[in-house]
């Protein structure tokens, strides 16, 4: 049966070539006085995007201050800097220009600037914010879906703790989605983004709910679309339509659509990956690809039919008379796909080689960060299971 749900997507989307020219107008519509223009390590400056965005803000008569320097796996120290800057300058709107890391950093600054106390408390689950500064995004990397999601993931340098906080009050007011902006990405980031998009759908797809006709159908279409176009982008990185399909899939994969009517999904791979990202600073999507196969083989027996449906409907596995063999063939086929777009399917291929004590450390941190100490719904995983999956992924 389809479960009751609330679907909340307040983000206005401006999609298409040249869409960043609308940024000034979109900000102006929000009725703000002063904007924080937040960006990353340099790609947006080098590509000329920041100049165009600044021009658009100036044309709309919007005043702004700037804070660049967001790094992948964005750091808490820059969030604190951004909060101070917002308070000093009377900022009342944040414009994030970049990938998921910049948008996540903007959300954290938004929470911190709109509330008293330490913003990290929210990420540790100690309290909840009552407000967030409104924000908008000009997206340069199709991956996280942060441009429409309620999620923000920040890394605290001390203890290398990477933690997420989800709250609808941080959903961006608007997202500027110009597929051309992603053409300057290195192939590795494009592929890593495609994996992340797929995983946002798959985390919701592998669940304990019954099959849902429409939600499952949307998920199948999303996954097939991303696989087809990720392969095209490997050959033709400047293919506009392929960039556009992937970009739209990225936003739809994490705005809640593919979770409508189910139990919300599993998310164990994300939790396992966040520990890898915290400790080794790896690209998020690549980290997901490296652990997915080991997770899937560890849990599939708890939902054999679901894995078999995935094999048939997404991976086009034909030999499906025996559900278990079919499920395993689907897992192998997805790993083959990851390899075909040069994504890792093991930790070694990811470029990390954790020692036994590092595996135990990641599993302990992962369990400590989870309510009740377990992650996942397909098969709830305790700390020993997490360590076993890391070991199997070596
Ligand atoms: O900093 P710059 O110079 O811009 O370089 C970035 C960065 O090095 C570069 N880049 C971005 N757009 C580019 C570009 N290079 C050339 N051309 C462009 N157009 O790409 C590198 C990676 O950027 P980053 O923003 O870190 O990547 P992504 O968008 O994959 O974000 C990853 C972060 O988001 C979190 C991840 O855990 C990770 O911390 N996630 C956030 C989610 C959310 N808020 O909803 C959900 C996800 O599951 C995820 O956990
Ligand atoms: Zn993700």
Describe this structure in words.
There is one protein chain. The chain has 394 residues and is an alpha/beta fold. The chain has 2 domains: 12-181, 3-Layer(aba) Sandwich (Rossmann fold), CATH 3.40.50; 187-392, Dehydroquinate synthase-like - alpha domain (Dehydroquinate synthase-like, alpha domain). 50% of the residues lie in helices and 11% in strands. The chain has 16 helices and 8 strands. It has a 6-stranded parallel sheet with strand order 1-8-5-4-2-3, sandwiched between helices. A hairpin with a 4-residue loop joins strand 6 (151-156) and strand 7 (161-166). Helix 8 packs antiparallel against helix 9 (240-253) and helix 12 crosses helix 13. The chain is globular, with a radius of gyration of 20 Å. 53% of the residues are buried. The structure holds 5,6-dihydroxy-NADP (NZQ) and zinc ion. 5,6-dihydroxy-NADP binds at residues 40-44, 72-73, 98-102, 104, 140-141, 143-146, 149, 151-153, 181-182, 184-185, 189, 193, 196, 254, 270, 277, 284.
Spell out the blueprint of helices and strands:
Blueprint: E1 12-15, H1 23-29, E2 34-39, H2 43-46, H3 49-59, E3 63-67, H4 76-89, E4 93-98, H5 100-114, H6 120-123, E5 135-139, E6 151-156, E7 161-166, E8 174-177, H7 187-205, H8 213-235, H9 240-253, H10 268-280, H11 284-299, H12 304-313, H13 323-340, H14 347-350, H15 356-368, H16 383-393
Parallel strand pairs: 1-8, 2-3, 2-4, 4-5, 5-8
Antiparallel strand pairs: 6-7
Helix pairs in contact: 1-3, 4-5, 7-8, 7-9, 7-11, 8-9, 10-11, 10-15, 11-13, 11-16, 12-13, 15-16
Bound molecules: 5,6-dihydroxy-NADP and zinc ion (ZN).
């Amino acid at each position: 049966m389809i479960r009751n749900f609330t679907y909340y997507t307040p983000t206005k989307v401006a999609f298409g070539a040249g869409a960043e020219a609308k940024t000034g107008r979109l900000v102006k519509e929000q009725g703000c006085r002063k904007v924080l223009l937040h960006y990353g390590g340099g790609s947006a400056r080098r590509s000329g995007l920041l100049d165009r965005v600044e021009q658009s803000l100036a044309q709309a008569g919007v005043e702004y201050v700037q804070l660049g320097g967001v790094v992948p796996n964005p750091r808490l120290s820059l969030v604190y800097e951004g909060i101070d800057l917002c308070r000093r300058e009377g900022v009342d709107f944040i414009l994030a220009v970049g990938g998921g890391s910049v948008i996540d950093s903007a959300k954290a600054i938004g929470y911190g600037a709109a509330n008293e106390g330490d913003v990290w408390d929210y990420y540790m689950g100690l309290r909840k914010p009552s407000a967030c500064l409104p924000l908008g995004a000009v997206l340069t990397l199709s991956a996280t879906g942060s441009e429409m999601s309620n999620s923000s993931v920040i890394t605290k340098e001390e203890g290398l703790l990477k933690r997420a906080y989800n709250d609808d009050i941080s959903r961006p007011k608007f997202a500027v989605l110009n597929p051309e902006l992603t053409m300057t990405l290195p192939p590795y980031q494009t592929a890593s983004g495609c994996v992340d998009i797929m995983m946002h759908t798959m985390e919701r797809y592998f669940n304990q709910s019954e099959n849902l006709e429409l939600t499952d159908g949307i998920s199948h279409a999303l996954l097939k679309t991303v696989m087809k176009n990720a392969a095209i982008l490997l050959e033709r990185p400047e293919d506009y339509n392929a960039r556009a399909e992937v970009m739209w899939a990225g936003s739809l994969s994490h705005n809640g659509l593919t979770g409508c009517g189910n139990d919300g999904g599993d998310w164990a791979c994300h939790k396992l990956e966040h520990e890898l990202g915290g400790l080794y600073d790896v690209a998020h999507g690549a980290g997901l690809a490296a652990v997915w196969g080991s997770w899937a083989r560890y849990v599939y027996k708890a939902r054999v039919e679901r894995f078999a449906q995935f094999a048939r409907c997404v991976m086009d596995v034909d030999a499906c008379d025996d559900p278990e063999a079919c499920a395993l063939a689907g897992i192998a086929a997805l790993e083959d796909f990851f390899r075909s777009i040069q994504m890792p399917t093991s930790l070694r291929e990811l470029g990390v080689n954790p020692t036994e004590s590092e595996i135990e450390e990641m599993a302990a941190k992962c369990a400590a960060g989870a309510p009740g100490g377990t992650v996942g719904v397909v098969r709830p995983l305790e700390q020993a299971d997490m360590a076993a999956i890391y070991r199997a992924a070596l």
